[in-house]
Amino acid sequence: MGTSSTLGGGYLFGLPVGFVADSIGATIGATAAFLLGRTIGKPYVISKLKDYPKFQAVAIAIQRSGFKIVLLLRLVPLLPFNMLNYLLSVTPVGIVEYMLASWLGMMPITFALVYVGTTLKDIADVTHGWSEVSTSRWLSEAPFIKLEP
């Protein structure tokens, strides 16, 4: 799921329902990409590995601790989630480990984005110009943070 849809989930459904829906949706989307990369997209993904030479170390670490490495990669995203889905598909991590670690690891950012979505005044904030909103602006408008001028 993208940032806009996660923010929209918070705006439209509120925190509890938006969080659950976005969390499940993000996990299903990540799993679909993983399965695509593991099956018909495998030759393409393998050809892209040359662009990420350090990913070989990740693949080796996954052989030892698949769940933990996937969880850490989700918590501290060193690569965009979409690229990570495909790259992880050619590692030995099992599908159940991948799904559970991805679900748990994506929870903090999903929760944060859904929460921000609940604070939006208009759905247009999600669909138009969100990328132009500065971090300092949304932090100053967030109800839980007060910035001193």
From TrEMBL:
This is Uncharacterized protein.
